[in-house]
Amino acid sequence: MSFDVDEGEILGIIGPNGSGKSTLFNCILGQLQPSGGDVRLDGRAGHRHAARATSTGCGVSRTFQLLQVFPQLTVRENLILAGPGAPGHACCRASSAGATPGSRAAADRMLGFFRLEHLADEEAGG
């Protein structure tokens, strides 16, 4: 497999069970050693670099299909709660413009990025 992801781009990997999606991400994030080829982040090759991807804030993260939201809280409040503590997390990347992860400003940047400003004050359960 070979692909490039440009700065600011979001790439989704879709495929059936057993097609290697999790293995691919585990190699990218440095949790598995690829059996062939190389993982390059910011043009630099090497498994050791990939293993630090999520702890150095270079913008690589992984999400899971566990959709845990607080239905009585607003969409913005859910984003604020999701922000702290996850290096490489989308809300943490929003902090590059001066917003603190877990802040209203970081949540508002994410709402803007996904063009969801109009839903910011709606209950997430809606």
Helix content: 25-40%
Measured between the Cα atoms of the first and last residue, the distance is 39 Å
Describe the global form: elongated
Order of helices and strands: HEEHHHH
Domains (count): 2
Numbering strands along the chain, what is their spatial order in the largest sheet?
Answer: 1-2
Rg, rounded, reads: 16 Å
Q: How is the main sheet built?
A: 2 strands, antiparallel
What is the fold's blueprint, element by element?
Layout: H1 21-28, E1 40-41, E2 44-45, H2 47-51, H3 75-82, H4 90-93, H5 104-113
Antiparallel strand pairs: 1-2
Helix pairs in contact: 3-5
Describe the structure.
With 126 residues, the protein is mainly alpha-helical. It has 2 domains: 62 residues, no CATH class; 45 residues, no CATH class. The chain is 28% helix and 3% strand. It contains 5 helices and 2 strands, in the order H-E-E-H-H-H-H. It has a two-stranded antiparallel sheet. Helix 3 crosses helix 5. The relative contact order is 0.12.
